[in-house]
Design goal:
Layout (H helix, E strand, L loop, with lengths): L1 E2 L4 E2 L8 H13 L3 E5 L5 H6 L5 E6 L14 E5 L2 H10 L4 E6 L5 H11 L3 E10 L17 H9 L5 E6 L5 E6 L8
Parallel strand pairs: 3-4, 3-6, 4-5, 6-7
Antiparallel strand pairs: 1-2, 7-9, 8-9
Length: 186
């Protein structure tokens, strides 16, 4: 990252899945009790979160994804779409301390997942949204980040129950803190 007197100039060549290292570091500090990841791909991030979380729930529609998950008493694979899993936790509620939304990269899906799972996130809980800062138009297509960035723009305008910011490095990571008040002890 280079600084000028007018603006921050971000690097074009940010490599790999930098967001995973960021999320892991965040979890190592926060130590969430329950972590839910919507959209697992090959469980790379999910498996790296195990040392820092008491209970991990991974949701993915692809049954093959379960074979990538490290099996432990702390981990649970849910082979489901996010709507079906939402219906399940509506019947048997959980309190989520950290939620990672990365299942489908469409504006509609991101908004729906946020709205469905927000009530289950604890006060002061963290919601992470991926793919909200594609570096150019090519990366806003369905095979990459999709139009998730439109959902981020829309959610950023409704801030009475949460605050959010996007790290402006491709593919983007938006951090949202649910809060009823800024300092819970005040």
């Amino acid at each position: 990252m280079f600084f000028s007197n007018k603006k921050i100039i971000l690097p074009e060549n940010t490599q790999g899945n930098w967001h995973e290292d960021f999320i892991i570091h965040l979890a190592s500090i926060i130590r969430p009790r329950i972590y839910v990841e919507l959209g697992l791909y090959h469980c790379d991030l999910f498996n790296k979160m195990i040392p820092f979380v008491d209970q991990l729930i991974g949701v993915d529609i692809n049954p093959e994804v379960g074979k990538y998950m490290q099996k432990s008493q702390k981990t649970k694979f849910v082979c489901s779409d996010t709507n079906t899993y939402h219906k399940h936790i509506t019947k048997t509620p959980i309190t989520i301390n950290m939620l990672f939304i990365d299942a489908h990269h469409s504006k509609e899906s991101v908004l729906e997942d946020f709205e469905h799972f927000f009530p289950f996130v604890a006060d002061q809980g963290i919601i992470l949204l991926h793919d909200g800062y594609p570096k150019n138009k090519k990366y806003s297509s369905q095979g990459y980040c999709g139009d998730a960035f439109i959902a981020i723009e829309k959610l950023s305008k409704k801030t009475d129950q949460y605050e959010m910011t996007t790290i402006p490095i491709h593919p983007g990571l938006t951090i949202c803190r649910k809060r009823t008040k800024h300092l819970p002890w005040k």
